[in-house]
Design a protein that fits this description.
49% helix; 126 residues; two-stranded antiparallel ribbon; single chain; mainly alpha
């Protein structure tokens, strides 16, 4: 698992709720970790992330942040952008504006992806 995929998984855990209450529940990261993704979900995540990295490597390499690597920010922003979380590639000051726009469009083409916790306690994709 590369840093892009790890950051993507960590972003899912940070950004999404476990739907354990009528108001949405707790952030997944409160009770789940990277090891809690169902194998089929993890397989799809790896495929999606690798494809996105391959198709957008030149743009992803243009991140210029003093604290995080291009892959760490890229994985995080891929999840946020593809799911319309209100922040992501287009609002990073550490990316040239045209690059942020191209990455945003690429993430949107990848399509929305949602998660849920199954009865077995594993995290699945919808």
């Amino acid at each position: 698992m590369n840093n892009f995929i790890r950051a993507y998984l960590e972003c899912i855990l940070w950004a999404e709720l476990d739907e354990s209450t009528p108001t949405g529940g707790l952030p997944l990261e409160d009770n789940y970790g990277v090891e809690d993704f169902a194998p089929e979900a993890l397989c799809r995540i790896v495929e999606d992330c690798k494809r996105f990295q391959e198709e957008n490597r030149a743009d992803l390499d243009q991140y210029n942040h003093p604290q995080y690597t291009a892959d760490e920010l890229g994985g995080h922003d891929f999840w946020l952008t593809r799911n319309g979380h209100g922040c992501g590639f287009w609002d990073r000051d550490c990316l040239p504006e045209d690059v942020g726009k191209r990455l945003t469009q690429a993430a949107e083409r990848a399509g929305e992806c949602n998660v849920y916790v199954g009865d077995d306690g594993l995290i699945y994709l919808v």
